[in-house]
Specification:
The chain is an alpha+beta fold and about 160 residues long. The chain has helices spanning about 65-75, 80-95, 105-120, 120-130, 135-150; strands at about 10-20, 25-30, 35-45, 50, 60, 100-105. Strands 1-2-3 form a three-stranded antiparallel sheet, with no helix packed on it. A three-stranded mixed sheet has the order 5-4-6. Strand 1 and strand 2 (about 25-30) form a beta hairpin. It is about 40% helix and about 20% strand.
Amino acid sequence: MRCPFCGNDDTQVKDSRPTEDNSAIRRRRSCNGCGARFTTFERVQLRELVVAKKNGKKVPFERVKLERSVNLALRKRPIEENRIELLINGIVRQLESLGESEVQTEDIGKLIMEGLKNMDTVAYVRYASVYKDFREAQDFEKFVEQIADPTTSKKT
C-alpha cells in the first residue's frame, strides 16, 4: 500500500480489526519512509457496478461519491459516524445485490432518500432539494408539507 503522504510503497500494517458491522477490515498502517500513520479499509466487492447517468453516459460506480453525497446531506447533523457508515454500507450492498452490473442514478438516489428519511428529516430534505431539483421556494414548501402530512403525499 502506497503512503498517501510521501508516496513510498514500503508501508507496514500495525493493527487490523473488523468494522462494527463486519463489512470491512480496518487496517492501521505506518510508512517506513516518512513515519506517517494512516488507515485503510478492505471491503468485499460483489461485482463491478456501472452507473448509467441521465444523459446516457456510463461511469464506474465510486463509493467515495456516494459517501460525499450522504455526508453533505448530513453535515452538521447530530448523527454518529458509525450510523452513517452503516447507511452507506447498506446502500452499496443493496446496489450490488440487485443482480445487475448497471444501475441508474435514479435508483441510487431513491436508496439514499429512503435511508436519509429514516435517519434524519433535515438531511432528507437537503438531499431531496438536489435530487428532486427544487427550483423555487414553493417546491420546498410542497415537499415539507408532504413530509408533515403523509396522507397528502402523492410521491416523495
